[in-house]
Design brief:
Blueprint (H helix, E strand, L loop, with lengths): L6 H10 L3 H4 L3 H13 L7 H13 L5 H38 L4 H16 L1
Helix pairs in contact: 3-4, 4-5
């Protein structure tokens, strides 16, 4: 049976085993670090980090449940818009590449070029 560790048990464990703090990082600390890196544009924004931070803030009473829910709805909507724009850019890029690949000179133009080259050789 798995039991959760209480705050005092974690403190005792961290004092007893040096270096374990590096192994047992809090998901909230990781999410906070990731969001800060994303804000500085060092990494991409990860929606799961925002979810973790909002859950933490509502558990601690820093945000009300309704406010947290509204914030997450805004974040998810913005992320969906960003994904839609990226998909649209990809589709436009692929369509442009296909159109460029299909652009072929007409046969008449090719024949005129060959005919002109033959005449130039004869002179």
């Amino acid at each position: 049976m798995v039991s959760e560790l209480g705050g005092s048990q974690i403190s005792t464990l961290l004092e007893t085993l040096p270096g374990i703090a590096n192994v047992l990082r809090s998901p909230v600390a990781d999410a906070l670090g990731n969001v800060i890196r994303a804000a500085a544009r060092l990494t991409e924004f990860n929606i799961q980090d925002a979810d973790e931070l909002v859950r933490y803030a509502t558990r601690r009473g820093l945000l009300g449940q309704e406010e947290g829910d509204r914030l997450l709805v805004e974040v998810h909507a913005a992320e969906q818009r960003r994904a839609d724009k990226a998909a649209e850019r990809d589709r436009a890029h692929k369509a442009k590449a296909r159109a460029k690949a299909r652009t072929v000179k007409p046969v008449k133009a090719v024949k005129k070029v060959k005919k002109a080259a033959k005449q130039a050789k004869r002179r």
